[in-house]
Amino acid sequence: MDCCAVRASSNQQGAAQNVSYCDLAKNPSAFSGKRIRVRAIYRYAFEVQRLEPPACCPEAAPKIWVEINAGLEGSSLKLFHKFPKGEGLVLVTFAGTFESGGTYGTFADRHKLTVDQIESVERIARSSRRQDDPPWVPKNCKAPEATQPKSSSAVIHEVLHAEGAVQFLLSQRYAYDAAE
To answer: What is 2-142's CATH topology?
Structure first.
């Protein structure tokens, strides 16, 4: 246990870079290995510990696994004890080390924030079920179509539709030429 407390103290000495969640979503690899400060929604339940955007971002939000250091002290520990037991949503400002490119957590997320400091808690909700989300949680956030990958069925549909259009145009041309 002493190891973790020492680790938490040494991490807190380095200054954290302020990063908006949307900037993190835009280019997560740029922050890999760095100590950051981010305001986000922390959603947690059985086998789920993720950050989510506090407002809609123009980019698709990456899945960011959260690990909270066991050595939290002082005001960070007091704020942590305000979190609902078991599951919940917390609009929070975390400081910690961000990692990108690995596989983290239950669902092999591509990014992870190891929290060594909780700086503020703005809002709390007890449930983590999306259908019960409070009004302060952004809803229906979608990335622009250009950045959303298309499913293979959507691509096939577009190709077939385009081929059908070409066949239709060709048939109209020949019908027109035949009428002359």
So the answer is: OB fold (Dihydrolipoamide Acetyltransferase, E2P) (2.40.50)
